[in-house]
Design goal:
The chain is mainly β. The chain contains 2 helices and 11 strands. The protein has one domain: Coagulation Factor XIII, Chain A, domain 1 (Distorted Sandwich), CATH 2.70.50.70. The strands form 3 sheets. Strands 3-11-10-5-6 form a 5-stranded mixed sheet. A 4-stranded antiparallel sheet has the order 2-1-4-9, with no helix packed on it. The chain is globular. It starts with a helix and ends in a 48-residue tail after the last strand. The structure holds 2-acetamido-2-deoxy-beta-D-glucopyranose (NAG) (4 copies). InterPro entries: AA9, AA9_LPMO.
């Protein structure tokens, strides 16, 4: 098998946003990531790149469009190929001040989690990763989210080599959106990104192939989900 073929089997970027049952073109609304060609992960949870993994921390935001999305509707991140690693998926949002296409957006303690997909566990099956090999992950923009400009940060924490510190692989993308028809909800708990993880959480530093005898199930890292 050629290296090219091998590399084309899985992809760890999700450049397309699914809005109104329509798929956008690559990087239209998702800030182009530094791994758009290499597919390499972020592994340093305190690096500024951990926020959006941008190609260029100065120019990418202004070169990316902002999608209008309706509160309560389903949105997705779509990859050009299967996201092949066993892991955990989640989605964070932050109000974007002064605008979604500004680099200043999301630099404070303003992020909240709106969705997650954890592996399931039982004594007989061990961890089961139903999300392995999906092409797209979907979530609902909370109906009561106040209207306005936001970033939506999708994250896959790939856990196949997460048994030592710094081994977990983070695949990240930030979409720029303008939420309309929202409500008066108060999202929280709020966290900073980077800052939300130390890298030592039991859901990040974990040997999924050799769980301790007293294991009782996957513990998602980060704050609880705000559903609106
Ligand atoms: C992680 O990123 C922080 C902030 O940029 C940096 O200080 C630190 O040296 C990095 N750690 C590693 C292991 O590269
Ligand atoms: C999605 O639909 C809403 C409501 O019709 C519209 O305002 C918005 O522009 C659409 N968004 C995109 C990205 O097409
Ligand atoms: C996300 O939605 C799309 C479009 O409806 C669907 O094809 C896809 O299977 C969904 N992804 C998951 C993981 O459910
Ligand atoms: C599980 O066992 C390990 C030692 O193997 C121990 O450090 C840990 O505290 C135990 N956890 C629980 C929840 O009992």
């Amino acid at each position: 098998m050629s290296l090219l073929l091998l590399m084309s089997v899985t992809k760890d970027t999700f450049p397309d946003l699914w809005v109104n049952n329509t798929l956008s073109s690559d990087w239209k609304y998702v800030r182009e990531t530094a791994n758009h060609y290499s597919n390499g992960p972020v592994t340093n949870v305190t690096d500024p790149e951990f926020r959006c993994y941008e190609l260029d921390l100065v120019n990418t935001a202004s070169q990316t469009g902002t999608a209008t999305v309706v509160a309560g509707s389903t949105v997705g991140f779509h990859s050009d190929a299967s996201m092949g690693h066993p892991g955990y998926f989640d989605v964070y949002m932050t109000p974007a001040v002064p605008a979604a296409n500004s680099e200043a957006a999301g630099t404070g303690k303003t992020w909240f989690k709106i969705w997650e997909w954890s592996p399931t566990w039982s004594k007989s099956t061990g961890l089961v990763f139903a999300s392995e090999n999906i092409w797209q992950f979907n979530f609902t923009i909370p109906k009561s989210l106040p209207s306005g400009q936001y970033l939506i940060r999708g994250e896959q924490i790939a856990l196949h080599v997460a048994e030592s510190y710094g081994g977990a692989q983070f695949y990240i993308g930030c979409a720029q959106v303008n939420v309309i028809n929202g409500g008066t909800g108060k999202p929280g708990p709020l966290v900073s990104i980077p800052g939300v993880y130390t890298g030592y959480e039991p859901g990040i530093l974990i040997n999924i192939y050799n769980l301790p005898a007293n294991y009782t199930g996957y513990q998602a890292p980060g704050p609880a989900v705000w559903t609106g």
